[in-house]
Automatic annotation (TrEMBL):
Boundaries of every ABC transmembrane type-1 domain copy: 19-299
Name recorded for this polypeptide: ATP-binding cassette subfamily C protein LapB
Keyword annotations from UniProtKB, A to Z: ATP-binding, Cell membrane, Membrane, Nucleotide-binding, Transmembrane, Transmembrane helix, Transport
GO MF annotation terms: ABC-type transporter activity; ATP binding; ATP hydrolysis activity; ATPase-coupled lipid transmembrane transporter activity
Span of the signal peptide: none
Subcellular location: Cell membrane
PROSITE patterns linked: ABC_TM1F, ABC_TRANSPORTER_2
Gene3D superfamilies the UniProt entry points to: ABC transporter type 1, transmembrane domain (1.20.1560.10), P-loop containing nucleotide triphosphate hydrolases (3.40.50.300)
Keyword Transmembrane helix: yes
Record bears the keyword Membrane: yes
């Protein structure tokens, strides 16, 4: 059975392959015209002063050149179409896959891995439309040329056989060494780029903590390793190419010498020798091309492997079996345990909680106690390792992300925004959200007055990741984004951590108001929010230390340091 990476490539290349083979057949047949032409000129025109024959031969070869040109053009077009299919179809599939993968899979690999996947796509695209593929398609015709040469010039057969074996050995050695060196080169490049990526992400920390020098040292180490692996790969590839070139020259010399002896023994004509030499060129060209394209082919094989592996990963659920009515807002965690890595101890252990419908519910606990993880599980972003989450009475795992996003609003700790306008961000970049809905969400989140006051209002560009706004402003816009469509459940991760007193009080009032119709679950350390909550859950080291009505939990919480509750 075909490896899935080759299956993926054949999906794109397969439909074009018969056409390519037919065109290559004709191109290779036409390639016989030159040796035939030369043979005729040497053996007939020169010896018999046949100028009329020469004219006919020149006319014929001109027609052949023209036909050959059009065929090559057509072959290039076909390969360009294949490249376009890779770009469009695979590009679209890859983006949809990356966007559709479960959050846990996305978080399990460093961020730049995903960018590299799109470079993999470019590698596949460029190789599929490049000279290496033409050389591969030309490969079967080598056998044909070999047979022809043996038939035409039997005394040269053993020279051709030796040349073919020498190229096969070189190709094999090249494949093994250059393929491996290419892989090492990529890994070294990725390690170096990871440092660069982090420097860009953590630029403010780098500057404020004066970490530029040590980080540069780290990057230079990475760069040195990358250069060393490039040089090694380059050396191996150059050696193969040079050995290939030398083999080509040796083949010509051996053919000419053996041919000369055969001519002296009257076993062959001069024309046959010249023709055999030209045919040898046709035989060696695709082999040399393959050897010099080996790096591209090895990269394409690895890239296709990575792409195929990602494309085979299971998605988050995309489609719903049935369009269920809007839930009332009851959210229940049933004996939920969760571990980020299967072999590590669980971050959450056997959590059972019920929220709503409606009400303001607070979750508190020390750093690292699992509050954010709990919220992500409640939002279906992570699947529990054990237990389940129920939305009303339905198991959360049956719902698609689209449906969950409509029913559960989620405001992450950093309030990340995407480059674009405030309006686009609140509307989740959907053209289907009406202005009235955006305004209502902004008013509910208490961000309308601030946005309306900006010179470009809702058209204001937020910058990369929302960088043109303060963290508090970003968080308020993120709350508005979560409220679009008035989901029956709203999850907020420390929404007041970056707000001033006044904004905190305003948000508290709004959350209490929202709690009358919506189940609001908020991770918070804000005393004001805790006091206004209907229920409080205290998490310690991934376990529920205390949970219940806030008037019961709060006095114990106030009397104890949160870290000591439940111990
Ligand atoms: N992506 C991850 N991979 C592995 N472990 C993680 C990951 N994210 C969090 N953890 C671990 O899970 C535990 C709980 O983290 P979580 O972020 O849920 O805590 P938290 O209570 O929200 O903390 P904080 O109050 O600091 O935000 C921590 O021990 C943390 O180290």
């Amino acid at each position: 059975m075909l490896d899935r990476r080759y299956r993926m490539l054949m999906d794109k290349l397969g439909p074009a392959l018969p056409g390519l083979l037919v065109m290559s057949l004709f191109i290779n047949l036409l390639a016989l015209a030159t040796p035939l032409f030369v043979m005729q000129v040497y053996d007939r025109v020169i010896f018999h002063a046949g100028l009329t024959t020469l004219q006919a031969l020149v006319l014929g070869i001109c027609a052949v050149i023209l036909f050959d040109f059009f065929l090559r053009q057509a072959r290039s077009r076909v390969l360009q179409r294949v490249a376009l299919a890779v770009d469009v179809d695979l590009g679209r599939a890859l983006f949809a896959k990356v966007a559709g993968l479960p959050l846990q899979v996305l978080e399990a690999r460093p961020g730049h891995t995903w960018q590299f996947l799109f470079r993999d796509l470019e590698t596949v695209r460029n190789t599929v439309a490049g000279a290496a593929i033409v050389a591969i398609v030309d490969l079967p015709f080598i056998v044909f040329f070999l047979g022809l040469v043996i038939w035409l010039a039997p005394p040269l057969a053993w020279v051709f056989a030796i040349v073919a074996v020498a190229f096969a050995v070189l190709g094999l050695w090249n494949g093994l060494t250059v393929g491996h060196a290419t892989r090492l080169e990529r890994e070294a490049g990725m390690r170096r780029d990871r440092i660069l990526n982090e420097i860009v992400l953590g630029r403010a920390v780098m500057k404020s903590a004066a970490m530029a020098r040590p980080l540069q040292d780290l990057w230079e180490d990475g760069q040195a390793a990358s250069i060393a692996s490039s040089i090694r790969r380059g050396r191996l590839a150059d050696s193969s190419m040079n050995v290939g070139a030398s083999l080509g020259v040796i083949a010509t010399i051996a053919l000419t010498s053996v041919g000369a002896v055969a001519i002296l023994d009257l076993e062959m004509t001069v024309g046959t020798l010249v023709a055999a030499n030209l045919l040898a060129g046709r035989l060696i060209a695709p082999l040399s091309q393959l050897i010099s394209s080996w790096r591209a082919l090895a990269q394409m094989r690895d890239s296709a492997g990575r792409l195929a592996a990602i494309l085979a990963e299971p998605d988050d659920r995309r489609a719903d079996a049935i369009d269920l009515p809007r839930p009332s807002g009851r959210l229940q965690l049933e004996a939920v345990s969760f571990a980020y890595v299967p072999e590590a101890p669980p971050v959450l252990g056997n959590i059972s909680l019920r929220f709503g419908p409606g009400g303001l519910h607070a979750i508190v606990g020390p750093n690292g106690s699992g509050k954010t993880t709990l919220l992500k599980i409640a939002h279906g972003l992570y699947r529990p390792s054990k237990g389940r989450v129920l939305l009303d009475d339905g198991d959360m795992s049956q719902f698609s992300r689209d449906q969950i996003a409509r029913w559960i609003g989620y405001v992450p700790q950093d309030g990340f925004l995407f480059s674009g306008s405030v309006r686009e961000n609140i509307a989740r970049f959907s053209g289907e959200v009406a202005d009235a809905e955006i305004l209502a969400a902004a008013q509910l989140a208490g961000v309308h007055a601030f946005v309306a006051d900006l010179p470009d209002g809702y058209d204001t560009q937020v910058g990369e990741g929302g960088s043109r706004f303060s963290t508090g402003q970003r968080q308020r816009i993120a709350i508005a984004r979560a409220l679009v469509g008035r989901p029956p459940i709203l999850l907020l991760d420390e929404p007041t951590s970056n707000l001033d007193r006044e904004a905190e009080e305003e948000l508290r009032r709004q959350l209490v108001e929202l709690g009358k119709s919506t189940t609001v679950i908020v991770v918070t350390h804000s005393p004001a929010l805790l006091q206004s909550s209907d229920s409080i859950t205290v998490l310690i080291k991934g376990n529920i230390a205390l949970a219940g009505r806030s008037d019961q939990v709060l006095p114990r919480l106030m009397g104890n340091n949160v870290r000591q509750v439940g111990t």
